[in-house]
Structures are given as structure tokens and as C-alpha cells.
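About this split. The held-out portion is used to measure sequence recovery: a designer receives only the C-alpha cells and must propose an amino acid at every position. Recovery is the fraction of positions where the proposal matches the reference. Here is one held-out target exactly as it appears in the evaluation file.
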């Protein structure tokens, strides 16, 4: 008698298991069972699609909204189900979550939901129209025909245009330089009961600035002040930028003084606008005094240092410029970039200092910085280089430092994306502007990975501050990391992570994807990792004589080190923690009052500490049951 398998795949059991795991917010496990059902050529039940989509929506971590839409899309195209209006509304709201700069990438998904609702004959509500136009208004290329179509649909449905909707239209006008439409929309906005903020005034100023009427911006700004609208940073930044661009020196200086006296922050961008105006007017002493003033108020941007260096070179103060340049090189949070080096190189060339030209030129070649073409011939003449030396191009290769940092960024949840069927990948950096040390960290990483960045991200720094989002070029070097940290596009912790958890990797993971808790201990965010993967990291840390605790905080896991373990970990990381962040991130040597030391794994949420012992015992039994069912489900794969 031939040997037979002792089990058979049971779709009913798998469906119940997936639904149970999804309702209990075990998203990763639910997805495993869901994928297993599909891999066995079955279509999951409608309930499974709904529960998994909602679980991803409620997870709230990076990438969860994208996954929620993918499941929703499979529900429509693979399953042939018709999603309910409430599910589509919830998913649509999740796509709109965040600022316009981040949410704008979900326009195609939002449009797909809108069209599905229309095709199903559902009544489209006001918030759907408003959200869709809001997304359109933030696009780099505005589709005015589509926006007008949506407005016509609203009118036919008897939906009135609200204040928020009209502000989106004003944003569109500012991007398209449509003065007439902007004034018409402004008049409509005044007729509503909308409480005015600074945003519509800023969009009107932008329209007139692009239309070549900068003095009209002053009228708008004064009108905002007269109406008692609370002043904002973006309003001051806009008026100062407009006036600086047209070199209205007295007006720009007057509004900068108001901005400083208002106590609003940040001031960096406006100081840069003034310095650029003074450079255009060749008022180099004003550039220096403005830079000196900015240091007392805020941390200057890269471009501010570039303008200051350039003004010193123009004035012939090479020694002073060299002091500033050397200080930047020593500052781990700032560093130097290609443009800064070119400015200093020009100063050395003008002074005929051949040894320093050679040294800086070699540094720039090693960092793969482009040499300013206008300096090429002069460099060749100064140090007798041949064309092949000047035009040499080094292929991109990750340094040991960069490899360690890439590991840290990926552990923190960064995204790797491929556009050529997983042959090459690009790495995305994203920073939380709410964190007080965001500027220091992003500036440091921008400098370290500068030669790897896309050309647009390299150019952005010449005009503005380092963006909160920047990406590397597509490169085969990242394929290794995709295979280990993002197999099949899912976040994972490699089994060999203990080989890659160097002190620098831990330091950058802490700075990029961690925090110091209110109680003074070190926290690493577990992102979308499963508890088994967090255990791998915990074992790797234990091998370094550092014990940690795995905690479930709401829907995600955290890896915590406290007390003496936190201090041991800190001593490992401290040499690689950026100078401006050491005071912010250094753990406290001891325990918070009443805090008991624990080791191992604790699956209780912070919100569950006050539960009575009976419910705690019940939760433990449920947890064990879930784990036993999950083990059975793995037999199917």
C-alpha cells in the first residue's frame, strides 16, 4: 500500500483561520494563510478579503496602505467581489492620510476606487470628491480637465463646494498661474463661512508672483494681517522669497525682521533667500552678516554655508573660507558636498595653491563628485593633469560604511523598489519632520550617499533644503539586500543578521528607526516584523551580552533595552551617534521608578497593563491557541 499524506488542505478551515488571525490583528500570519489559499488555486472568501484589507488599514505602519489597496484590487479582479461602500470609503480615507506631499503618490489608487464606486452605481459622497481633487492639486503635473470633470459631477449631484475644496482649487491656480480663476475662487471662498487660514493667501501670492506682479503680494500679505488671520511660517517664507527674487531689498528686510520678532520657526529658508539676494546685488558683507545672524537663530542649511563660502572667496578672504570648509568637514552632521568643494576649489585655483588644488581634487574624485566644467581647464593648467585624469569616472561601489548603514535603514523599514523585474533596486530614505533631530540625520545621510542619489535629488539641494524624501539610483548592489531583507517584496529579518549588527549599524538603526523612551531606555521599532523575527535580533544582541525585551505596543512590536543593558548598548553605539543627537538619545543609567526588570518576551500591549489577572490569563490562553493554529497552517506550505 502506497504511503499517503496524513492531511488534506481544508479551505473552510483555512478561511476560518485567516479570518480569526485578521480580526486579532495578526496581519502577517493572516497574509500567510491568505497567500497559501491563492497558491493552492483557491479564491479566498469575501470575508477574508474584507478582514485582511481592514487589518492593513488599521495597522497604520509604512506600506500597510499600499498592501491594503493590493488586497482590495485582488478582491475586485481576482475574486470578482463587489466591495461595500463602507470598505471603499475606509480605504479611500487611508490613502488620504498624511500630508499632501506624501499622499499625492496614491492618486491612481484613489481614482481606481472612485471609478469602482461609480461603476457599481454607488452614490459618491462629498468627501470622496473633495479628497480626489485634493490629491490632484498636489500633483506635479495638474490635470485640469479631470478636475473640471469632477467639479461638474459635484454640481450635477447637488454638492456644494466647501471651503476646503476651494482651497484645493486655489492650489491648482497657483501651480497653473491662473490669476483670473484664482480671484474668482477667492471671491467664492469669502462667501462661505470658512474660517480663513494663511494657506489661501499664500496660494494667491504665489499666483501673482508667477504672473510677474510681486508688489501685489505685499497687498495680499497686508490684507491677511488686517483680517486678523494668524501668521504662519509659510506666509512669511513666501513673501520674503518673492521680494528677494525681485530684489526689493527694503521690503524683504522689513518682513524678515517681523518674522524674527514673531517667534515662529524655522527661519532657515528665509535667511537663505536674503543671502541669495545679497549675492545677486554683490553685497558680500551683507551675506556674511546675515549668515552670522542666522547661526544665533537656527541651524544653517547647506546652501547657506555655500553662499557664505562663495562670498568669502569673492572678497578674497581665502583663509577664513578655509576655516569654514575645514569645520564643515569635521562636522559629522553636515559634511561637505560637491558644490561646496567646487566653491573651495575655485578659491584655491584663483590663489594658485597647487598642492591644495591637487589634494581637494583627489578628495572629490574619491567621493565621485562632479568637477565644475568651468574649472577643468584651469585645474589642468595649474597642476599639469592630462584629460584622461580629469574626465575619469569611477563606478559606484558601496563602501563598508555605506553597507552597514544600508542594513540599519532596511531594519528601520525603508523601502527597496525595482523597475526592471528585480535586476536592480533603488533605496528610499524618508524622515519624520516632527522629530527634533530630523535635519541633522537627513543631512548626514544625504552626504554619505550623495554619489548614489538620483540626479534630481542631487540638484534639489542647490535650491532648497534636503528633502524629507530622497532615493538612490537603481543599482545591482542593492539586489543582495532585497533578497535578504525584502524577499518577495515583504519585510523580513535575515537569519544571519547577527553577522551584520555592527556598532555603526545599531547606531543608525537607533537614530533612523528608534527613540529614547520617556523612562530613559532604548527602543528599536519592530515595524512589520513578526515576533519570530524580533527574536532573531534579540538573540543577536544577547550574543553581544545585551539582553532586551520584545514588547507589543498596540499593533507593532518593539525591541527595548533598559538599565545596564541599555548603557552597554549605548557604549557600543556612541562613537557612531552624531554629535548633535548624543544628548537627545543617550539612555538613563537606571530604571524608572516602579519599573521592574524583565527579560524575554512580553506580548502585552501598553494599553493592557491595567487588565485584571483573569483577563490576562485568558489572553495568554488565546495567544497560545493562535500560535498552535499558526503552526498547523505552516504545514500547508
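Reference sequence for scoring:
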Amino acid at each position: 500500500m502506497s504511503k499517503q499524506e496524513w492531511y488534506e488542505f481544508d479551505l473552510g478551515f483555512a478561511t476560518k483561520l485567516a479570518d480569526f488571525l485578521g480580526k486579532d490583528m495578526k496581519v502577517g500570519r493572516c497574509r500567510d494563510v491568505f497567500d497559501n489559499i491563492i497558491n493552492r488555486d483557491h479564491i479566498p472568501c469575501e470575508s477574508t478579503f474584507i478582514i485582511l484589507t481592514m487589518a492593513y488599514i488599521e495597522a497604520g505602519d509604512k506600506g500597510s496602505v499600499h498592501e491594503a489597496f493590493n488586497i482590495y484590487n485582488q478582491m475586485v479582479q481576482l475574486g470578482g467581489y463587489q466591495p461595500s461602500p463602507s470598505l471603499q470609503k475606509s480605504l479611500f480615507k487611508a490613502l488620504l492620510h498624511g500630508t499632501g506631499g506624501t499622499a499625492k503618490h496614491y492618486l491612481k489608487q484613489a481614482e481606481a476606487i472612485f471609478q469602482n464606486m461609480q461603476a457599481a452605481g454607488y452614490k459618491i459622497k462629498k468627501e470622496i470628491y473633495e479628497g480626489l481633487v485634493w490629491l490632484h492639486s498636489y500633483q506635479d503635473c495638474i490635470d485640469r480637465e479631470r478636475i473640471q470633470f469632477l467639479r461638474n459631477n459635484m454640481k450635477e449631484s447637488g454638492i456644494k463646494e466647501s471651503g476646503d475644496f476651494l482651497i484645493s482649487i486655489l492650489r491648482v491656480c497657483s501651480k497653473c498661474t491662473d490669476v483670473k480663476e484664482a480671484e474668482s475662487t477667492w471671491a467664492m471662498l469669502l462667501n462661505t463661512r470658512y474660517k480663513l487660514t494663511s494657506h489661501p493667501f499664500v496660494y494667491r501670492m504665489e499666483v501673482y508672483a508667477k504672473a510677474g506682479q510681486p508688489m501685489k503680494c505685499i497687498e495680499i500679505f497686508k490684507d491677511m494681517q488686517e483680517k486678523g488671520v494668524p501668521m504662519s511660517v509659510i506666509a512669511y517664507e513666501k513673501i520674503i522669497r518673492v521680494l528677494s527674487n525681485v530684489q526689493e531689498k527694503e521690503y524683504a528686510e522689513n518682513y524678515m525682521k517681523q518674522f524674527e520678532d514673531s517667534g515662529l520657526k524655522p527661519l532657515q529658508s528665509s535667511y537663505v533667500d536674503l543671502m541669495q539676494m545679497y549675492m545677486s546685488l554683490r553685497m558680500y558683507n551683507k551675506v556674511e552678516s546675515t549668515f552670522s545672524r542666522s547661526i544665533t537663530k537656527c541651524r544653517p542649511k547647506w546652501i547657506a554655508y555655500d553662499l557664505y563660502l562663495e562670498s568669502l572667496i569673492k572678497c578674497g578672504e581665502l583663509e577664513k573660507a578655509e576655516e569654514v570648509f575645514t569645520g564643515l568637514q569635521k562636522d559629522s552632521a553636515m559634511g561637505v558636498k560637491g558644490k561646496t568643494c567646487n566653491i573651495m576649489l575655485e578659491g584655491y585655483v584663483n590663489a594658485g595653491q597647487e598642492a591644495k588644488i591637487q589634494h581637494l581634487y583627489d578628495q572629490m574624485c574619491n567621493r565621485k563628485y562632479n568637477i565644475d566644467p568651468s574649472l577643468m581647464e584651469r585645474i589642468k593648467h595649474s597642476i599639469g593633469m592630462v584629460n584622461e585624469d580629469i574626465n575619469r569616472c569611477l563606478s559606484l561601489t558601496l563602501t563598508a560604511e555605506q553597507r552597514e548603514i544600508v542594513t540599519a535603514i532596511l531594519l528601520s523599514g525603508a523601502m527597496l523598489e525595482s523597475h526592471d523585474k528585480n535586476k536592480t533596486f533603488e533605496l528610499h530614505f524618508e524622515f519624520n519632520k516632527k522629530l527634533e533631530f530630523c535635519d541633522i540625520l537627513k543631512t548626514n545621510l544625504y552626504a554619505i550617499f550623495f554619489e548614489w542619489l538620483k540626479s534630481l535629488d542631487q540638484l534639489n539641494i542647490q535650491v532648497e533644503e534636503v528633502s524629507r524624501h530622497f532615493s538612490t539610483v537603481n543599482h545591482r548592489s542593492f539586489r543582495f539586500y532585497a533578497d535578504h531583507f525584502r524577499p518577495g517584496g515583504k519585510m523580513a529579518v535575515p537569519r544571519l543578521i547577527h553577522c551584520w549588527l555592527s556598532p555603526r549599524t545599531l547606531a543608525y538603526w537607533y537614530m533612523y528607526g528608534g527613540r529614547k523612551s520617556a523612562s530613559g531606555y532604548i527602543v528599536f521599532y519592530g515595524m512589520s516584523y513578526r515576533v519570530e523575527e524580533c527574536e532573531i535580533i534579540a538573540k543577536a544582541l544577547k550574543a553581544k551580552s545585551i539582553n532586551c525585551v520584545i514588547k507589543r505596543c498596540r499593533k507593532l512590536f518593539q525591541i527595548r533595552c533598559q538599565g545596564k543593558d541599555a548603557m552597554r548598548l549605548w557604549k557600543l553605539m556612541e562613537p557612531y551617534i552624531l554629535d548633535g543627537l548624543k544628548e537627545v538619545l543617550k539612555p538613563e543609567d537606571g530604571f524608572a521608578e516602579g519599573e521592574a526588570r524583565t527579560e524575554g518576551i512580553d506580548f502585552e500591549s501598553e494599553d493592557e497593563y491595567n487588565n485584571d489577572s483573569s483577563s490576562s490569563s485568558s489572553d495568554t490562553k488565546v495567544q497560545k491557541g493562535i500560535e498552535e493554529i499558526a503552526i498547523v497552517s505552516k504545514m500547508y506550505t
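Annotator remark: The chain has 32 helices and eight strands.
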